Automatic annotation (TrEMBL), chains A, B:
Name by which UniProt lists this protein: N5-carboxyaminoimidazole ribonucleotide synthase
Positions annotated to bind ATP: 107, 147, 152-158, 182-185, 190, 213, 266-267
GO CC terms of this entry: cytosol
Entry-linked Gene3D superfamilies: 3.40.50.20, ATP-grasp fold, A domain (3.30.1490.20), ATP-grasp fold, B domain (3.30.470.20)
Example GO BP: 'de novo' IMP biosynthetic process
Keyword ATP-binding: yes
Function: Catalyzes the ATP-dependent conversion of 5-aminoimidazole ribonucleotide (AIR) and HCO(3)- to N5-carboxyaminoimidazole ribonucleotide (N5-CAIR).
Reaction equations catalysed: 5-amino-1-(5-phospho-beta-D-ribosyl)imidazole + hydrogencarbonate + ATP = 5-carboxyamino-1-(5-phospho-D-ribosyl)imidazole + ADP + phosphate + 2 H(+)
């Protein structure tokens, strides 16, 4: 596929959560149909997608049918099984490509990639066993945080080591998975850049947002972030560097720690990102449409920020506040249509707009 | 239904065109599922709706199943067969209600309703035959325009009478349908107000837009419209008067002629309206979400205008310009996913934004 997709083309989306839902709506806005591949039934994306392949990621036959039904495949989460990608890649373009997935699926590979690029990260070391962990603690110092190399998100698969006495339990918490020890970083705040790159190699970045987490889950993103002009430029340039190095096509989230020594890269996500939801009310073209434009071979859209926005996630019981939020002026609600409001579950978000 | 609908409730939409499509997306944004009833197969709304009842409007069984599957019914066009409404109304709330539909389905009833309210319209008279037409021409004067009382839209079912010699052909053009003769109005420009009223009786109106037509189809809507402060106030007040008189629930489009004698009401549409598409880029809550909020028993959202916008319809071959439009800064494309770009067919629209 080298020509831009036109009206009526179908975009395949792996994963049926809220990110897939908002990607699907953005694709429809540009005249595309969408087809979601998701093992779950009544999922947020299926409500708005044109087709739903309800099958397991190890169902090779379903994957082949899915590939035949779509013109390009993208995804809303990075932990897609390798075997599924092997099948799809041979049949249809997958965007963003394998390189970005490979790196972001493994915290160790990701950190190594970033430091090879000359970017700063927290100090880190691979940990497979007790000996590794002792050496890593000696090298990095405490406090530190032990994380599984793969499949961790929203604080899952992580254990803090405040003193040497915590080490054994932390290793047990990894449940035999390969891990990485990361040193604590003295940062003042976290920001993230939502960057995009299209098939022509054009790069565009949204204004960085400032993130606050609660219980390991993103709580709010505020734009503009507290950054000097130099930091803002650095943040955007390093994002472009990452995108270009990966021949990336699509939208990427880059989380950064702001420290006295400059910006440290915390992690990258090869997909639209929760910290970019503010773009729905702050820009002409939001991160979801930007991603669809990129993977469809279109020119990138105008993502310049025209308003100050505070995005707040609605988690679990926060849904009880919806009737009140619905009355607020200058406020846009985005609900994901999930049936049950369990604790820790992302149910929606709200963008509060302060026009710039 | 008196309580507001909550996440997971299903909104039924009669009609599967672009208005239904954008209503469906707005409903999803608030966590609702949507179910479209539309005889056609691959229709714009079905691409984004959760369910599609593909059946005829005279299929009573399908209508009953549809009613059972949804919590409220709304519609994207006013010419819904009366028998279909009779079935639905007994089973599920239909919003906006029957009163508004009855009036807007018949140009004569509509004009009579408006003049009863004390509002100005073009001079009009009922025309069923040659005798009526001669009398009406004598009363109203020429030039005038003969229109079918029912089922006309986008310039269809209309014939201009410039001189008496055109009268016979104009009547033939009505193909035996009841008609109405309307006098020409000397207006400087046309504006429209998109108003909303919810189940609590709250009314909110968007800033009026100024409309330009081409070949009988809306070409552009520009906000702000050229209106004096007094005219702007009049436009909003008369819209509120119409909404209240009809116990209306939902969004309505009110087309107005600006004349030396004040504002004349051209016609009302009991649904979201093409001239309100600019709200997608000019307001926090657009006309589609406003309509969904109203029919779902929610509070109305913040529809204050924060930008100057020019909306342009993309008709037929205008689709060839999409690749160029996609590159424009400050421009949002909205395509409807229609397979074929026939002449006169609305394929999409573009909102060009000049931040206020």
């Amino acid at each position: 596929m080298t020509d831009p997709l036109t009206t009526g083309a179908t975009i395949g989306i792996l994963g049926g959560g809220q990110l897939g839902r908002m990607l699907s709506v953005a694709a429809a806005r540009l005249g595309f149909k969408t087809c979601v591949f998701e093992p779950g039934g009544d999922c947020p994306t299926s409500h708005v997608a044109n087709y739903h392949f309800q099958a397991s990621y190890d169902d090779a036959d379903a994957l082949r049918k899915f590939a035949a039904a779509v013109d390009v495949v993208t995804y809303e989460f990075e932990n897609i099984p390798t075997a599924a990608l092997d099948i799809l890649e041979g049949l249809v373009p997958v965007r963003p490509g394998r390189k970005a997935l490979k790196i972001s699926q493994d915290r160790l590979t990701e950190k190594a990639f970033l430091t090879d690029l000359g970017l700063k990260t927290a100090p880190f070391a691979a940990v497979d066993d007790t000996v590794d962990l002792a050496e890593a603690m000696a090298e990095i110092g405490l406090p530190a945080i032990l994380k599984t190399r793969r499949f961790g998100y929203d604080g899952k698969g992580q254990a803090r080591i405040m003193s040497e006495g915590d080490a054994a339990q932390a290793l047990t918490d990894m449940a035999g998975q390969e891990a990485i020890l990361e040193g604590f970083v003295a940062f003042t705040h976290e920001v993230s850049v939502i960057g995009a790159r299209n098939t022509a190699g054009d790069v565009a970045c949204y204004d960085p947002g400032e993130n606050v987490h609660k219980d390991g889950i993103l709580h709010t993103t505020t734009v503009p972030a507290r950054l000097t002009t130099a930091q803002r430029t650095d943040a955007v340039l390093l994002t472009a560097q990452i995108l270009n190095k990966l021949d990336y096509v699509g939208v990427m989230g880059v989380e950064l720690f702001v420290t006295a020594q400059g910006l440290l890269v915390n992690e990258i996500a090869p997909r639209v990102h929760n910290s970019g939801h503010w773009t729905q009310q702050g820009c002409t073209i939001d991160q979801f449409e930007q991603h669809i434009r990129a993977v469809a071979g279109w020119p990138l859209g105008d993502g310049s920020r025209y308003a100050d926005v505070v995005m707040e996630n609605l988690i679990g019981a926060d849904m009880e506040r919806v009737p009140e939020i619905a009355k607020e002026p200058g406020t846009a609600l985005h609900l994901y249509g999930k049936a049950e409001a369990k604790p820790g579950r992302k149910m929606g978000h709200v963008n509060r707009i302060i026009r710039g």
